[in-house]
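Write out this protein's structure.
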Amino acid sequence: MNIADIADKTLTLAEKSGATQAEVYAIRVKTATVYIDDNLPKIGGSMVESGIGLKYIIGKQIGFTSSTLAQETPKDVVERAKSLAKVNNEDEKFVSLPEPKKASGSADQFHDHATASADSTILMEKAMEVVTAALCDIVTVPNGSLRTSSATFHIRNSLGVDVGSKGTIAFGFFTAKSEDNGVVGEGVQRCWSREINSIDFHGLGQMLKEQAQSVLKAKPFKETWEESVAVLAPSEGTEMVYNLIGFAVSGENVNKRSSPWSDKMGEKVTNENITVIDNGLSERGLLSSIVDDEGVPTQRTTILEKGVLRSYIFDSYNANQLEMQSTGNGIRRIARDLAGRFSSPATCAGTTMEVKPSSKSVDDIIGEIKRGIYVEHFAWPIVDPLSGNFSNEIRNARVIENGELGDPIKYALWVGNLYESMNGDVLVGNNPEIHDKRVMPTIAFPNTEIVGQ
């Protein structure tokens, strides 16, 4: 039985058993993985997983449960969800599941056949391209992984939603270790794409080697630079920017009054150089689909336009509370791993956050900076999305002085407030890269501090 039929059967059973409203999310995911261990490939194998998530509603009492249906029937799932709804308190904020709306485009327009059909042999060849390009006398690749996923999902609800979509993802993560005369360095590179054949694996390996070798020349940073500019490579800036802006524009956080931008619609909240779009139909987006995980058509939502807040993002639950329309942001899937996503109900989240690039190259940006730092790798790029404060350990970076790149450094902290920095003279590059749920270029953040040992 295909997933659309499973969804239909489960919904029919839920309605017959007395549900006021019901929603079934059915998904089938195929995943193939290979691993690198000390320069050698290890086959991780492949897996096919199917599952359903059922939201069963009696008035304002909501029960949610999920199953792979491996050892139980749709009827068992319905009975469990019904029993949960009966014992749960009423959710006074619940209004309704979404009503059907026509989605534009084809269900398979974000699906790549080559990625979906890639087996362990193909993945091993691709992963070894990285390793071969990275290896030299002083550089090894101690670990890495390459994974492809293809997903087909379908949503049915009692208001008439009956729609699905499909897509593919390729994700790789590789680390390198360099060692020369007792000095040790590391390199980290990731790759993301909906199309595995669009990834330059040889080039990825070369970047990994260069990064690991450059760290060998790095020296501890012993000064403190106040009012400095940090230029972040896309891999490092995307995580922080998404966590901050995604939190601030989430309809859930707006409703809870926890977003710092709750009352700032139409106001300038960042520098005018920043324009951000949540694009559920992004050509490069890993979660792009014609509908979100509630069956609502996805769309292109301008969040920030030249620094001015233009829109929040909503799933149906949070949109209904404000008598607004969902923006197609009811999400269950995550880009890193599509497996098991049926086990949670949809939440308000971004699809693909696109930061509009400028015409400035990275060299142009560096040339405008009197004193700062160019960061290729943090230990982990984090930011408190409520306050905007951050303190990140720098693992791989180079100083910038008088518009030129200087020596590599290590053992320093980048400290500041991202909300405040984004209101300063932010510089945006012309080199957008895809990382997880973001398509973002190099960005220079002013008014921050570099703290040495």
